[in-house]
Hints:
Layout: H1 6-18, E1 34-43, E2 52-57, E3 64-69, E4 76-81, E5 86-93, E6 100-107, E7 114-120, E8 131-137, E9 147-150, E10 152-157, E11 165-170, E12 177-181, E13 188-193, E14 203-204, E15 206-211, E16 220-225, E17 231-236, E18 240-244, H2 251-254, E19 260-262, E20 270-275, E21 282-286, E22 292-299
Parallel strand pairs: 5-9, 10-14
Antiparallel strand pairs: 1-22, 2-3, 3-4, 4-5, 6-7, 7-8, 8-10, 11-12, 12-13, 13-15, 16-17, 17-18, 18-19, 20-21, 21-22
Amino acid sequence: MARRSAAPALALSLLLAACGASDPPEVRESGCPRCTGAARIGALPPGDIDECSGVVASGLHPDTLYVHNDHGDDPRFFAIGFNGALRAEVTVAGAAAIDWEDIARGPCRSGGGSCLFLADIGDNDGERDSYTIYGVPEPDTLGGAPLASTAEVFVLSYPDGGHDAETLLIHPTTGAITLVTKVNDGSSGVYELPALPAAGAPATLVRTGSIEPPAGSARFTSGDVHPDGTGVLLRTSSHVLYYPIPPAQTVAQALAGPPCVLPSPDEEQAEAIAWVPGGWDYVTVGEGKEEPIHRVSCQAP
């Protein structure tokens, strides 16, 4: 299935209403990016990237993506080309890798520069007391010998116990952090902080609301805020959703509104998604060995 539109979601809404079930969330029909179908542009390289769980585009190096593995790997991430060619492996000193689930790019906590944030937020059993986000500067150069970077460590907890999550959102201007939890059915929680806390100082997230996809799987697996801060992509196991961010709204406030349904590439295990800088295209990657990299071409809303 190379492309999805809003039509199936609308048909589902009518069907559920006719059956007496509660209506699913509304689907936005205006203000949406205008997209074509998905195209395969490459594949993950053979070797150590065997369970890709997050992806984000570089702000410094053209046509470069950063990806990382799910739980079970060392604390490291990889730089690859859009075609999948390996460009660098970066070891993250001062970090542990319990269950890394997403990666985002945003302003560095210390001010200035572009940083990558790796989210150790997975918790299948909802038993962890705290979760960690590791911040590292984007590498200045790629290629050659393996790289290393020392992480700033941000420790977070939820106000209402442990949650499994796979979606980290960092606002590109304010640095505000938003987490969306992952559930098998029903509504996910949306939690936010106006900025990353001081490194090493534990902070408690604030629950700002809940979110439910308008159709398909309830499992949110990844997300990314547009580089200009005007919209956010969320991926579920079945759909790609776009939420516009009006001026003066936070990411969490934007997620309370109805989404657009955008094309969702056909991948065995839909996992990671990221905007492509300089426009409205986005890329997706599935979770597995040598998974294809897809790009969806879009025009501005």
